[in-house]
Design goal:
Elements lengths: L2 H14 L2 H7 L4 H15 L4 E4 L2 E4 L1 H27 L5 E7 L1 H18 L3 E7 L6 H4 L3 E5 L8 E8 L1 E5 L1 H7 L12 E5 L7 E5 L5 E5 L1 E6 L2 H9 L4 E5 H9 L4 E2 L9 E7 L7 H10 L20
Parallel strand pairs: 3-4, 3-5, 8-11, 8-12
Antiparallel strand pairs: 1-2, 5-14, 6-14, 7-12, 7-13, 9-10
Helix pairs in contact: 1-2, 1-4, 2-3, 4-10
Length: 309
């Protein structure tokens, strides 16, 4: 058995907690699975799993190894899926979920392009900012931002969603330009209540140190377009995803503030009801999304034209 097969076995033992169940999945015997894990530990010269009558648990080095193995196994599965789905047409209805702003600006053009490549697919888009139960809502795949809670859902990491601080040139001319994070306390800020509800902005300064700054402002909203409109109307400094702000930055309606500092990035995930027996249409859509969220991915979004936010 090669090293990749052993890694796949190890990952499934951790996820199921059962050597017997993994043996059934791999059409082999429980002693064979046990032997493979033991050989892996011998090669690495470290114990990966604690075994007892209640099951198995990861050791500290086992936890680190599991995360790396899981990423490798997922990457291999993604690579194979890309080849498989390109060799056959997918069909049927695909229900896709997302938050409202990300859905409208990012998911819509991607879904339309996917439909052009797969004419037998019908897509039902559902955008909501509240948490959605995929199974209860009948969602086949959802794009979610941020850290994922541990769950039984299947997931693939697609990239990251970086944020930027912006303000209009007129606002900065009137109120001054912040030079360091602590200067934000003296400015009007535009609060995104869905993420920044505690009125505390967390940044990393030019030295990479984490800094938390209490902020105040007259406007808060759970709508990113509303905050961009307020920033363009000289109402204060807004923290926005790059995909929301980039067109206004290009047009110089707003400018970047505190360029040497960084706001936290959000991970972008494709999430689906179960990691096992994933429907081909879901595999195809996720394979299509792979590689779409690389460096400065928002630059590839179609222009919104002259419509105002």
């Amino acid at each position: 058995m090669d090293r990749l097969d052993a890694m796949q076995m190890f990952v499934r033992v951790v996820e199921t907690g059962s050597f017997t169940r993994v043996a059934h999945e791999f059409a082999t015997t429980q002693p064979t699975v046990t032997k493979q894990i033991a050989a892996m530990e011998a090669r690495l010269k470290v114990r990966l799993l604690n075994r007892n009558t209640r099951g198995v648990s990861l050791t500290e080095p086992g936890t680190l190894y599991y995360e790396k193995c899981k990423a490798i196994v997922n990457d291999v599965a993604d690579a194979e899926n890309v080849v498989k789905v390109r060799q056959s047409q997918v069909h049927g209805q695909l229900r896709v979920g997302s938050s409202v702003a990300f859905g409208r600006r990012v998911v819509v053009p991607l879904a339309l392009e996917f439909m052009q490549h797969n004419p037998q697919v019908q897509i039902d888009l559902s955008f909501e900012d509240r948490y959605t139960d995929l199974v209860a809502s009948g969602i086949d795949v959802a794009l979610r931002l941020g850290k994922l809670a541990d769950s039984s859902l299947g997931a693939r990491t697609l990239g990251v969603n970086p944020w930027v601080l912006v303000a209009s040139p007129s606002y900065l001319k009137k109120h001054g330009t912040p030079r360091r994070p602590s200067d934000l306390k003296e400015h009007a800020t535009l609060i995104y209540s869905s993420v920044q509800g505690n009125d505390l902005w967390r940044l990393r300064n030019a030295s990479g140190e984490a800094v938390s700054v209490p902020v105040t402002g007259r406007l808060r909203s759970n709508n990113l377009s509303a905050l961009l409109a307020a920033a363009r109307s000289h109402m204060g400094i807004a923290a926005l995803p790059w995909y929301v702000a980039h067109e206004s930055l290009k047009a110089a309606r707003v400018v970047e503030v505190l360029k040497t500092c960084r706001l936290p990035e959000q991970e972008i995930h494709a999430v689906y009801p179960s990691p096992r027996l994933v429907p081909q249409k879901v595999q195809a859509f996720i394979a299509f999304l792979q590689g779409r969220f690389g460096k400065e991915w928002w630059e590839q979004l179609p222009s919104e034209g002259s419509s105002k936010k």
